[in-house]
Fold this protein.
Amino acid sequence: MSIRIVIADDHTIFRHGLRALLERFGDFPVVGEASDGPETLKRLTEVEADVLVLDLSMPGGMSGARIAEEALKAHPGLAIVVLTMHQDEYYLREMLAVGARAFVIKNSAPENLAAAIRAAHGREYYVDSSLAGHTVSAFLGRPAAKGGKRVDVLTPREQEVCRLLALGHTNGEVGKKLHISERTVESHRMKIIERLGIKNRAELVQFAMDNGLLTTR
C-alpha cells in the first residue's frame, strides 16, 4: 500500500534529494513539497497526504510545534514524522507532546526514515536510535516531578494561555484563539512568569510538558 507524503523543509536541494530517495522505496509517492510553515499548511489542503515529513527550523514565523499542531487540527488522520538536525531531548519532548509520531535525525540511514514513516502511518511511535534512551511514554503528559511546580498554581485561563505560549503562539494569536485582548494575554503571561519563576520559553515548555498541558487534544 502506498503512503502519500508531503515534505516540508526550507532547503530546495534537500527536498528534491529526499523526494528522490523516498520514491526509490516504491511505496512512498511524494505528493507535495513546502518551504515554510504557511506553505506547508496550504499544501496539505491541496493534496491528499498520509504523512508529513517535517523539518523543525523553517522560515515563515511558525515553530515546528505550531505547524504540527495546526496541521493535525485540520487533518486529524495525518501522521507527522519530524526530520531534523536537532539531536536534543527538548525538541523530542515538544514534538511528541503536540502529536508527532516519529522523530528522526537527518544523518540517519535512509532505512531508518522509511521505518519511521511506516511506523507513523501505522499509528505507532518511532524515535531515532541516537535518542533511544528516551522512552515515548515519558513525554506524553507525564505528571510533574516530586517537588516541582504544579499546574494548580495557575488558574484554568492561565493554564490555557501557558499551553498556547508553549506551542509557540504570539500574544496576538493567543488572544484570537481565546477571544481576549492582546493586553489581557500579556497580563496572564506576566502572572505565569511570576508565579512559576520562569526565565525563558524552554522553561515554559518544560513546565507545560511536565504538567500535561501539551497532551494531544
